[in-house]
Amino acid sequence: MIYFDNSATTEIYPASLDTYVKTSKRVFGNPSSLHYLGVQANRLLEQARKQIADTLQVSNEEIAFTSGGTEGDNWILKGTAFEKRSYGKHLIISSIEHPAVKKTAEQLTHFGFEVDQAPVTEEGIIDVNQLAELIREDTILVSVMAVNNEVGTIQPIQEISTLLEKYPKIHFHVDAVQAIAKIDTQKWLTPRVDFAAFSAHKFHGPRGVGFIYWKKGRRLQALMTGGGQEGEQRSGTENVPAIVAMARALRLTFEKINQRPEHLNHLKDALMKGLSTYDKVTSFFSRRK
Ligand SMILES: Cc1ncc(COP(=O)(O)O)c(C=O)c1O
């Protein structure tokens, strides 16, 4: 079988699955427990955090674990709304966001928040000038995905970052679930990006696990309250085997990208530009005949 649905989900790498099974069997302590097994689990958890942070070239404290992309998007939108409700009630999302962002924003409208959707061009790319016109005094968040999950269009995160330099109080969230390990990190994790959401099953890791990038100094309210894990920000006993297996999958994915031959990078860039790239792909193949 040739599997072509990798934007929906990917097959777990055997090495990631192996890590999951071994960690489940051998390091089953609760990372919050003070005994040896707990300390061991906590050490693995922190190693996984460091590995992910190093891969993205951010610091360890800027990575928080979640159950996947949907939770990450929910956390960032609702956490911003709850945190900043006394400053403003206006959010901007793009009109082509994943339902994890769109439906969350819509839910917030039932709690007194106002949401505007930035339109896209015929090619499915956000018009940055139109986005700029939507910004208000009371805007608290702009949320734009880096790569669209249906047509693969790459959104102008660098241009939006430049625009938002003028509005330092607005939280800038990037849903990077489809972008990580597909396009260069600096294209979507710019210094102006405050938050980003990720999901392991899109890069050959296990399902039901992910993480968010949360820039140091920015504030979010917790979505999950309880035992105070993740520095009181995301309660619930950590899924250590899945987190460690996710870190391994991410490392392997980045290693594979770095080994990718030049001509495949060309094809990848062409494919990622969405439907309009059909011509480029065919011309690429005709050049290689
Ligand atoms: C762009 C985007 N955001 C969020 C999600 C949700 O991620 P998860 O399946 O981990 O909840 C997906 C999944 O398809 C996605 O493509």
Automatic annotation (TrEMBL):
<dbReference type="GO" id="GO:0031071">
    <property type="term" value="F:cysteine desulfurase activity"/>
</dbReference>
<dbReference type="InterPro" id="IPR020578">
    <property type="entry name" value="Aminotrans_V_PyrdxlP_BS"/>
</dbReference>
<comment type="similarity">
    <text>Belongs to the class-V pyridoxal-phosphate-dependent aminotransferase family. NifS/IscS subfamily.</text>
</comment>
<dbReference type="InterPro" id="IPR000192">
    <property type="entry name" value="Aminotrans_V_dom"/>
</dbReference>
<dbReference type="InterPro" id="IPR015421">
    <property type="entry name" value="PyrdxlP-dep_Trfase_major"/>
</dbReference>
<dbReference type="GO" id="GO:0046872">
    <property type="term" value="F:metal ion binding"/>
</dbReference>
<keyword id="KW-0411">Iron-sulfur</keyword>
<dbReference type="Pfam" id="PF00266">
    <property type="entry name" value="Aminotran_5"/>
</dbReference>
<keyword id="KW-0808">Transferase</keyword>
<keyword id="KW-0663">Pyridoxal phosphate</keyword>
<dbReference type="GO" id="GO:0051536">
    <property type="term" value="F:iron-sulfur cluster binding"/>
</dbReference>
<protein>
    <submittedName>
        <fullName>Cysteine desulfurase</fullName>
        <ecNumber>2.8.1.7</ecNumber>
    </submittedName>
</protein>
<dbReference type="InterPro" id="IPR015422">
    <property type="entry name" value="PyrdxlP-dep_Trfase_small"/>
</dbReference>
<dbReference type="InterPro" id="IPR015424">
    <property type="entry name" value="PyrdxlP-dep_Trfase"/>
</dbReference>
<keyword id="KW-0479">Metal-binding</keyword>
<feature type="domain" description="Aminotransferase class V">
    <location>
        <begin position="2"/>
        <end position="284"/>
    </location>
</feature>
<keyword id="KW-0408">Iron</keyword>
